[in-house]
Each structure stands twice: as structure tokens, then as C-alpha cells.
Design a protein that fits this description.
Elements lengths: L1 H18 L23 E11 L2 H12 L4 H15 L9 E8 L4 E7 L13 E2 L2 E2 L2 H5 L10 H12 L4 H4 L1 H9 L1 E2 L2 H14 L3 H7 L11 E2 L2 H13 L2 H4 L2 H11 L18 H6 L3 E3 L2 E5 L2 E5 L6 H12 L9 H22 L10 H4 L2 H8 L40 E7 L4 E7 L52 E4 L5 E6 L5 H14 L5 H6 L3 E2 L6 E3 L1 H4 L2 H9 L3 E3 L7 E5 L5 E5 L8 E7 L2
């Protein structure tokens, strides 16, 4: 099975390279020193390394570092810092994420869990008030939702372990971008408009993101001098400024005493973050998940994220179905059903392994997947919610216990993918949770704080069944983030992908992988393909191109039920071509299109 897959990938790669146009980073600055707006290109092919993200300025920051001799890790941190400027509602210093790294010298994959943590004083009743769980809206825009940030620690850990440059060096492009500004596009304005009401609850947020009290105009220049100074401080003092210094004390004060406009009438519940929480935080090195799929090795992030286990289990369920020969209807049917089952098992078994007994190895076993795959029928649909299986004691077609609903996760995370001339690869997804995070800006610092703690279950769905995702002291909430790197049988890179999108991240990565590996779509087309997302719910979400297509009716005839989702995810990826070139790919349309660049383009 390995050799046919490898041959098909090689043919696909050459075909993609022939039709793609290379894109390189624009010059660092125009006359007068201000960066010009970087053009967006969804696919690029060439040598010397590649970067793909949702934003052209951020991608250009990574390319700048690669051009100056940095490796993939250096460029990934530079790109992430720049996304903190241009995508401040999705990521930044006040958030967290998961970092997956392929080391070309040793042909091994390593990961960092940089997820935010609950305060050490938190317990399972963190979001309970008067005996009832808070509403999601009340919890989000409050100090109560803010976890200890993990992004700065992740940057430093990655650079210490595998980078070649200092933090201060790789922060320079982002610091310059924050100081000189970037061009506001439709996505930035619309995201600001969607958050305008709650941004006005917090004067510092309104001052920063609603200049002169107005929404930023498309085409205007948005500057963030406060963030530029924050990056300068991190470059000078290191991330200890957050975890042991004055900047950290300012974060604690903001969380515990949210600076609300009294005239707004908003009750921003205080958090319980402390300097002790910051000092105790660690970005954790840990082993990746590994799944064998069609002769390839699929690596991703292990719990506290559920991404690696859930994508991996779904791939294992699909392993014995020849998706390359299936009709489009049968392909989507099996993809949807595998997702439904994998989410059922995720909800029951996955939480922070420092607190929960998570059967990671068993969830990823082919034996367990086979016991679940037999639930799927070609001519019928499973009824959601599907009950979980028992990975420690798999029995054919068996289910047991009570299904746990999928908790809401904010969709405006961001993902970047990087490769360098030495063959190293990074897939990195970072987030502040939902669009705009908690809505709270640290005064004078230029960044929003996360609302990651709302990824916890507020209360058990069923008091009689253990919920592995309840809050706890220092606990990491479960995530769906799924940065993934695929290697061939010789442990050389094939493709790396990832996406934002809350719980839809898992289905987006799964659909992109199967589109590329099984359906033999060029990577940029696998990313662009219209998406479906089933998360053990009564209805499957469809993007408009699927919802309005004949495929929907054909799937409904089998028994599927659907609802419309205007946009699911915003993936990026890189692919290693047989001749040694890199192909970078991003969205063609979603979020205004992504940005793929290489150091030295080729036709």
C-alpha cells in the first residue's frame, strides 16, 4: 500500500508545482521606512523555505527570518508574533497554543503544549453561580474566563530547544509592523464590528481597536505602538517580564479587576489569577500522537488537546475504506460518520492528562478503531449523539455510557505552517479562543487577554458520568487544536497542515488530509474544498458550496441532516516536493484568502 500512495503523491506534487506561481516576501519597507501592503497569494513553490499563514504581513515576517539564516522554528515564532499584530482577535501574547516540530536531522517529531491554565485556586465550580452554570456570554467577557497565558513561554521554549536565534531577533519584524502599522482589510473591520458592543465595555480596548470611537476603515493604516513597546520589552527582558515581572503584575491586576466603563452597565466578573500562577506556568515538551495511515506516519498534538487523538482515531476508522475510489457522496458519508464517532469518544475520554487518566494509546489503536468502524453503514446514518466506546476494552460495534455534548470553542484561532532549507517543519496553532478573546486589553500593553477557560465544561452534562473536562487548579482546558505533520515510510516530510475553527478544527484537518492523501487533490485545492463538520450532533454543518449542491440531497436521502455554516476553518499547509522544493498553500477565499510565500520562487 505504501508505494502506490507515494507514487500518487509524487505525481500530485509535480502537477501542483507546474501550475503554481511562486510568491516571495515583498521588500521590507517602502521609501520612508513604512512597510507596503504585502500581496496575498494562496500557493507558492520554490526553494530556501516556505511560510503559510492567513496574513501576508505575518507570512512576510517569517520569510524575512528565513532569508537571514533563521530556521523553521525561528520563522514560526516571528510569524506568530506578527499575527499578534495583524490578527489580534485570534492570537497574541495573551493567549496560548500548540507547537509541532519536525527535526530533519534526526527525522523525529516533537511538540510543545503551550495551553493556558486555570488559576491554582480554581475548582470544578469555577463557572457556577448560585448553584447554576453561568451563561456563556456572561463568562466570556470577564476576568473569570482568562487563563494563564502560554504563548510567550511557548516561543521561548521552542527557541531554546530547536531555534537558532534569540527571541529579540525574531520579534523585530513584528515590533516594526506594530509600530509602523498594517493596512486594514474587510476581515479586520468586520471582526471589529462583530465585537464593537463588548469592546466598548472596556475603555482600553475601545481606545485601541475603535480609534476616535469609530470602526477602523478598510484601507486605513492601523498602528499599535503599545504592542510595539511590549515586544521591545520582551526582546530586552525576555518572557520573564510576563512570568516574573512587571508586565505579569499588570496582567494579574487586569484579570482580577477588569477595567470596565461604568456607563456600560456591564458586570465583568473578576478573575482569580495571581503572580503565583504566572510563576508556576510551564510550556510542556511532550511526545506527539502518531497514527499510521496508508503507509504514512501522521503526527499531531497529544492531550491536553483532543486534536491528535480525534483526527487519529477518525483516520484509523477510515483506514479500511478505499476513499480514493468512493463516489463523492460515499466519501463524504464515511468522513462524516467517522467524525461523529471520534467526537463521541473524545467527549468521554479526553482531558488534561495531568488530572485525568486519558487512554491516549488505546484511543489511537487500530483495534479500537475497527470496533467503532463497524458501526458505519453505507446506506444509513448513525443517530447522534452516539454513545462512546471503551478503548481499553474494545468490543465490535459496542457503545456504552452516555454521550457527552461537544462544548463550544471559539472559532477565531489562527494557524501557521513553516519549512526551512534544511528540511525542518513547524505546524503551529495559536489562539486567544473566540474572536476578540475576553475583550479585555491590558492597559497600555496593546494585546487582548484570552477567554480559554470557557473551553472547560461549566457543569457535568450528566452528573452520573465522569466529565474529564471540568475545571481544576492549574488544569488545562481541552482543546481541538490539531497541528499535523505527515511523514513517509522513511520519516521524511510529506505535508503539514492545521487550521483555526474551534471544534471544527478537527474536521477541517481530517477533511484536508483525506482530500490530499485519498482524493489526490493538490494541497491548495484540498484546503479550498467546501467543508462539512460533524461533531456528534443531530445535524452536520455544511459550507454554502455543499449546502446548495446536489450532494446535500443525495446525503439526505441516506439519512443525514444538515445546517448551514457560512465558513468553516482557515487552513494552511506546506508540502515537500520530490525535487526538494517546498510548496506552501493557504486559503483562496476564507478570511479574505491566506498568504503563501517561499524564499526563492520558481515557476
Amino acid at each position: 500500500m505504501r508505494r502506490p500512495v507515494a507514487r500518487k503523491l509524487a505525481v500530485l506534487a509535480v502537477s501542483a508545482a507546474v501550475v503554481s506561481v511562486g510568491a516571495a516576501a515583498p521588500p521590507a519597507a517602502q521609501a520612508g521606512g513604512r512597510p507596503g501592503p504585502a500581496p496575498k497569494t494562496p500557493v507558492a513553490v520554490g526553494y530556501g523555505g516556505a511560510v503559510s499563514s492567513v496574513d501576508a504581513d505575518a507570512t512576510a515576517a517569517g520569510i524575512e527570518v528565513l532569508r537571514k539564516g533563521g530556521n523553521a522554528v525561528d520563522a514560526a515564532v516571528a510569524t506568530a508574533a506578527a499575527l499578534g499584530v495583524t490578527e489580534p482577535y485570534s492570537a497574541g501574547v495573551g493567549g496560548g497554543g500548540y507547537f509541532v516540530y519536525y527535526d530533519a536531522r534526526t527525522r523525529t517529531v516533537h511538540t510543545i503544549d503551550g495551553r493556558e491554565t486555570a488559576p491554582l485556586t480554581a475548582d470544578r465550580n469555577l463557572f457556577m453561580e448560585n448553584g447554576k452554570p453561568l451563561s456563556f456570554d456572561d463568562a466570556v467577557s470577564s476576568g473569570l474566563s482568562v487563563g494563564t497565558p502560554g504563548t510567550p513561554a511557548t516561543w521561548q521554549k521552542a527557541l531554546d530547544e530547536w531555534g537558532t536565534q534569540r527571541l529579540g531577533t525574531v520579534l523585530r519584524p513584528a515590533e516594526r509592523l506594530a509600530r509602523d502599522g498594517f493596512t486594514v482589510d474587510d476581515t479586520f473591520r468586520s471582526q471589529t464590528a462583530a465585537n464593537e458592543t463588548r469592546f466598548r465595555y472596556f475603555p482600553d480596548t475601545a481606545k485601541l481597536f475603535l480609534p476616535h470611537g469609530q470602526l477602523p476603515a478598510v484601507g486605513s493604516t492601523f498602528k499599535n505602538p503599545d504592542l510595539a513597546r511590549t515586544y521591545q520589552e520582551l526582546a530586552r527582558e525576555g518572557v520573564g517580564a510576563i512570568y516574573h515581572g512587571e508586565l505579569g503584575r499588570e496582567i494579574v491586576k487586569t484579570v482580577d479587576h477588569p477595567p470596565v466603563d461604568p456607563a456600560s452597565g456591564w458586570k465583568a466578573r473578576p478573575g482569580e489569577l495571581s503572580e503565583k500562577d504566572l510563576a508556576a506556568y510551564r510550556a510542556k515538551l511532550q511526545a506527539p500522537t502518531r497514527t499510521a495511515y496508508r503507509g504514512l506516519n501522521v503526527y499531531s498534538i497529544a492531550p491536553s488537546s483532543s486534536g491528535g487523538t480525534t483526527v487519529g482515531e477518525a483516520l484509523n476508522i477510515l483506514e479500511k475504506t478505499d476513499l480514493s475510489k468512493a463516489s463523492e457522496v460515499q466519501y463524504l458519508h464515511h468522513f462524516i460518520e467517522a467524525s461523529r464517532i471520534a467526537f463521541a469518544d473524545r467527549g468521554r475520554w479526553v482531558g488534561d492528562p495531568a488530572f485525568e487518566d486519558v487512554p491516549t494509546k488505546e484511543l489511537l489503536s487500530q483495534k479500537f478503531a475497527d470496533s467503532r468502524a463497524c458501526l458505519i453503514k453505507d446506506d444509513a446514518v448513525l443517530t447522534s449523539p452516539v454513545a462512546p466506546g471503551d478503548p481499553r476494552h474494545p468490543a465490535a460495534c459496542a457503545t456504552g455510557g452516555t454521550a457527552a455534548p461537544t462544548t463550544y470553542e471559539g472559532e477565531n484561532t489562527t494557524h501557521l505552517t513553516v519549512a526551512d532549507r534544511w528540511g525542518n517543519v513547524v505546524a503551529y496553532t495559536l489562539t486567544i479562543e473566540q474572536t476578540g478573546g475576553s475583550g479585555i486589553t491590558v492597559p497600555g500593553r496593546g494585546f487582548l487577554l484570552n477567554n480559554e477557560l470557557t473551553d472547560f465544561s461549566f457543569a457535568p452534562a450528566n452528573p452520573a458520568v465522569h466529565d474529564p473536562n471540568l475545571p481544576g487548579p492549574g488544569k488545562r482546558p481541552r482543546s481541538s487544536i490539531s497541528p499535523t505533520i505527515v511523514l513517509d515510510a522513511h520519516n521524511r516530510p510529506v505535508v503539514a497542515v492545521g487550521s483555526p475553527g474551534g471544534a471544527t478544527i478537527i474536521t477541517t484537518v481530517l477533511q484536508t488530509l483525506t482530500g490530499f492523501l485519498d482524493r489526490h487533490l493538490p494541497l491548495v485545492d484540498a484546503i479550498a474544498a467546501p467543508r462539512a463538520s460533524q461533531r456528534n450532533a443531530a445535524q452536520t454543518e455544511l459550507e454554502p458550496a455543499l449546502y446548495d449542491s446536489p450532494l446535500r440531497k443525495q446525503l439526505e436521502a441516506i439519512g443525514h441532516s444538515f445546517k448551514l455554516n457560512p465558513e468553516i476553518g482557515a487552513a494552511t499547509g506546506v508540502q515537500r516536493l520530490p525535487d526538494g522544493r517546498w510548496l506552501a498553500a493557504a486559503e483562496k477565499v476564507r478570511r479574505g484568502g491566506g498568504s503563501a510565500m517561499v524564499v526563492r520562487p520558481s515557476r
